[in-house]
Amino acid sequence: MLPIHLEKKFQLFNEYWTPKILGEFNGQLIKIAKLKGEFVWHSHEHEDELFFVVKGTLLMKYRNDKVLLNEGDLHIVPKGVDHYPVADKECWVMLIEPKGTSHTGTTQTEQSVNEADQEWI
Known about the structure:
By secondary structure, the protein is mainly β. The chain has one helix at 6-10, and strands at residues 20-25, 28-38, 49-55, 58-62, 65-69, 74-77, 83-98. The chain has a single domain (6-117), classed as Jelly Rolls.
């Protein structure tokens, strides 16, 4: 029943593209991640994915479009849509997605992290 202080939680880790779980509500997981560089093209067949930029900027590339997200911006990637996140400099994001959502959808790379292996902080 205590508040979660995002900045303090972000200070607990340094890895990029490795979401950490803050909590769960109504079947949704609240996660935070530090992003830097380019990720992988992927989609989530059955789940929308919410990105909230806490610090920095994030470019969300789509096959035929792109969206630049600045600090304080929120963006929802619709289910089934290929996307490719890029952060030129370190970017902090909060993610909200259904429990069981695969980190990289059906795309499996060395950057993929299984939900069972994601750390609760």
